[in-house]
Amino acid sequence: MPKFVPRETDGAPSTGPLIMKRLMTLTKGQITKSAVADDDAAHNSLLDCILCKNIMIQPRECDKCRKGFCHSCIDSYINQMINGDYQICCPNCSSTSFLLVDPHPLLTRQLSAIKARCANADKGCTDTLAYGDLAKHQDECGYAMLKCVNYGCEGEFYQKDAAQHEAGCEFRVDRCDKCDVVKIKDEEHDCIK
Predict the structure, then answer these.
(1) What is the rounded (10 degree) CA torsion for 63, 66, 27, 158?
(2) Does position 101 have pLDDT exceeding 90, yes or no?
(3) Per-residue model confidence as pLDDT tens digits over 148-158
(4) Is 187 contained in some domain?
């Protein structure tokens, strides 16, 4: 199930709706174009993350076996090992002295040739994007699910509908222009100057 997390802000407190973050994945079914014409060659296992079995997103490699992982997959794996008091080792070659390194430039070039449909295509997004634009688009996509931040509101809506929901949300909290008292939307109060 997707988790709700605050939008990325530059250290400022979050004021907008919470974006429903899903672990970013790129399935073979999303790919619309690759640099290699042969489908089997285009989707070869060199592009697959060892952990999630999908095409790598922000790839990292083990310096020993040179197998690749999605950045988020290997981070999650390492955190599970640390939290479980296990010795950290490469999930592919079991080396305990492995380091994560940038992928080989040829792998990076092959990944950059991929074009894929948005992960929100099932919700109505029709965008086809270059591999390098997928992460940014996921945060900006009008069909990304958001959750209202107003206390008591359980509203979930598409990002493109956020302004409309915020304007009509019965749980919206405002501050009085005169006395700075917090009040529920359109609530009357005795204003103290």
Answers:
(1) 10
(2) yes
(3) 888 888 889 99
(4) no
